[in-house]
Amino acid sequence: MSEKKQSIISPLRYPGSKQALVDYVESFLRANNFVDREWVEPCAGGASVALSLLARNLVTHATIVEKDPLIYAFWKCLKTDGAVLCQMVRELEVSLKTWKKFQKYREKEAIKKYPLIELALAGLFFNRTNYSGIIGAKPIGGMSQSSDYSIDCRFTKATVIDRMVEAHSVMNKMTVIRGDVVAYLRRTEPRLGQGTSVVYVDPPYYLQGKRLYRHHFVDRDHVRLAEFLNAANFPWLVSYDNVPFVVNLFKNQTVRPIWLQYTVREARRADELLITNQDHLPLPALNERPKATARPALKGTVSRLRTRRTRTAA
Which residues make Cβ contacts (< 8 Å) with residue 198, sequence separation at least 6? Predict the structure, then answer.
């Protein structure tokens, strides 16, 4: 009987969560002899992959980097002040009144004005109470709270705290940094190129990034990231939405289309790309590794990775 593999579910609801990729990433690490290296995730978001790899003891350490100050604050404080943050969640009133009160934490200079632990709580609050977990969005149920779903419908405290405790349990082997993905990679490239690290980048979606993220990419940011990675001397894996612009940026790398299929009120499928500068990109049911070309988008055989989602968009 095969042993059930451990995965940690992130406390954060995140658009495009990569929880479904964890088993695949494990096979990627094993195929390329990257087990027992440092895992570097410079677009942290929900950090699902980093947490699960640590739980499975597949990597020696994880470094996550996040640009959004509220998401950074959450991960930083969960690591350093996890018990305090959990207690703050227990005492938190999940209501529209709190949502309005917390607006000050979404201000541009909030990280300079308020304690990090307050920003951490606000980041979790907005993530769990806003539509699709989008920090800059409106609350579930709207400002009138007249829909079938109220602001607290995705904030079951017991579940959220359990996930926080489980994540905290592996964060002694995690470093949390606030910064820009390319700036961080450029600054640490000499160390990353020493053969003891592997980098996973899950940048903001090309098509939907502006709607989903406060710190989204414009075209020049996608180009800047691709140009840096294409010339990098360290091993990397990237996940992206499957669009012609992205395909062309990485046309000289190993690329695979893959479906991330979710079960929601109405099933939806995300057609995405996995890209690497390594030769081995193992995927179930795929026997060859085609190079990307600048055609409308990559099509063909794909592997379907399924994950369960709740009834409404997570």
Answer: 29, 32, 34, 37, 38, 39, 40, 59, 234, 235, 236, 237
d(CA 147, CA 266): 18
Q: What is the CATH number of the domain that holds 221?
A: 3.40.50.150
Beta carbons of 36 and 59 less than 8 angstroms apart: yes
DSSP for residue 92: -
Q: Which two tokens stand for residue 208?
A: 């939907």
Q: Among 165, 198, 220, which residue terminates a domain?
A: 165
- How far is CA 42 from its chain centroid? 9
- Domain contains 266: yes
Separation between Cα atoms, residue 307 and residue 314, nearest integer Å: 12
- Rounded to 5°, the CA angle 227-230-233 comes to 120
109 φ, ψ (degrees, to nearest 5): -100, 20
Q: Cα(12)–Cα(8) distance, rounded to whole angstroms?
A: 11
d(CA 165, CA 160): 9
For residues 61 and 203, state if they share a domain: yes
Sheet with strand 236-241: strands edge to edge: 174-178, 59-66, 37-41, 197-201, 236-241, 268-276, 254-263, 303-308
From first to last of its 314 residues, the chain has per-residue pLDDT tens of 345 578 999 999 976 668 888 999 999 999 999 999 999 999 999 999 999 999 999 999 999 999 999 999 999 999 999 999 999 999 999 999 999 999 999 998 999 999 999 999 999 999 999 988 888 889 999 999 999 999 999 999 999 999 999 999 999 999 999 999 999 999 999 999 999 999 999 998 876 655 556 666 678 988 999 999 999 999 999 998 888 999 999 999 999 887 765 433 334 455 788 999 998 888 643 333 334 443 445 554 343 343 333 333 33
